[in-house]
Amino acid sequence: MRKDHYLFTSESVSEGHPDKVCDRVSDAIVDTFLAHDPYARVAVETLATTDRVVLAGEVRGPKEVTPKLLEQVVRQAIKEIGYEQEGFNWRTLAVENYIHGQSADIAQGVDAAGNKDEGAGDQGIMFGYAYRETEELMPAAIHLSHGILHSLAEARHSGAEPGLEPDAKSQVTLVYENGEPRRAASVVVSTQHAADLDTDAVREIVRPHVVNVLGEDWMCPEAEFYVNPTGRFVVGGPNGDCGLTGRKIIVDTYGGSAPHGGGAFSGKDPTKVDRSAAYAARYLAKNVVAAELATRCTIQLSYAIGVSRPLSVYVNTHGTGQADEDKLSRALQEMLNLSPRGIREHLGLNRPIYARTAAYGHFGRAPEPDGGFSWERLDLVEGLRSEFAA
After folding, report:
1. Confidence class of residue 109 from pLDDT cuts 50, 70 and 90?
2. DSSP 8-state symbol, 329
C-alpha cells in the first residue's frame, strides 16, 4: 500500500569533505589522461589524510602523463577546493603515487578485437532515475541539500563569506503530504569555519543560504534548524577525517530515493560501466519523464565484464506510466546503443569533463557546451513522444 504522509531525508557533502576531495583528485586524474588520449584507461583511487595524499590504481595511457604531472594535478585540484591550512595545504602536503599499468587480463576483455566489440570494464548493475518533483526531474531532498552547499561554496570562493572553510555537510528532511513534498521538517548544516567565529555567528552566515534555496514557505521551524550541532567545527577536511574515493555514492546519485547498484563513479574512465551506464540510465529515465510518458521512472541495466551488450534492461514507471513498459524498454534500446562504446559515443564521454562532477551531484545539472553533463540532455523527448503517440 502506498504511503502518502511521511518524512524523507537526504544529505549532501561539499567539495571540501574529505571523501569529496578524493573524488575530485581522482576525477582530475581521469581528465588529465583523457585530455592527452581520449581512449586512455583509468581506474584511480585516492586517500587523503593529514598532510598526505596517496594515489593507487591502474592506467593505460600516454607517456606524457608522468608522475610529476600527476602530482601537479593533485596539488591544483586541492588548491581549487581551497585547502591552504594547517594540517592540509596544497603547497606542502606529501603525494605518494602507487599507480601502475592496467592488467592485461582486464584489457583483453574490454578491448575491441576482430569481430568483438568493446566489452564492459566490469560486471555490475546500474540504476537511473527521474521524478517530476523538481524542474531538474530530481528528488527534492537531495536537490535542495546540494543547493545549500553549492550556495555556501560560491560565497566562500567569491570572498563574500571569508569565515567559511571548505568542509561542510547538509541534510534536508521534507514533509510529504499526499505523496508530494510540502516543506522542510528539519535542516542540518555543519560547516568548517574560522576559529574566531562562534556558533551563533556561523548560524547567521548559513541561514540566508538555506532560506534562499528552500524558499521562505519551505523553511523548517527554527527549533529544527541545526547549524554545527557539535558547537565547533574548526579542524576539518582530511586533517580531521580520512577521505577515500567512492564513499559518497548516494550523495552522488539520488539521495536514497532510488536504488543504487553499488559502484562508485569517480576515478573511472567511461569504459567502466559503473560510470557510463549509470549516466545512460539517468539519461533514458529523464527523457521518459520529460516526454510525459511517466511521472516517475527507474531504469536498471546490467553487464558482464568483457561483454558488450547489456544482459538486462529493466524499466519501471511505478504505476505512473502512459506506455507499456516492455515496449518502452525496446524503444529505448533502439534509440541508444547500450554497449559501452555506444554509450560513450552517443554521450561524448571520451572528454575531460569529470572533475566538475565530483561534488554537488552527478545528476540534475545543466548540460554544458563542451559536453559536460551530456547525460542530462533531453534530445530523446520528441522521438519518444512520436513513438508512443496515441
Report:
1. low
2. H
DSSP 43: E
Cell of 6: 511521511
**Contacts with 276 (C-beta within 8 Å, 6 or more apart), sequence order:** 270, 340, 343, 344, 347, 349
DSSP code string of 171-197: EEEEEEETTEEEEEEEEEEEEEE-TT-
Section 161-177 average pLDDT = 97
Please spell the DSSP secondary structure of 88-114, one letter per residue: EETTT-EEEEEEEEPPHHHHHHHS-BT
Q: Quick one: cell of 361?
A: 551531484
Give the residue from 263, 274, 245, 267 showing the smallest Cα distance to 44: 267
CB 295 within 8 A of CB 323: no
Nearest to 236 by CA among 189, 193, 187: 193
DSSP state of 376: G
To which residue does cell 574529505 refer? 18
Global pTM value: 0.95
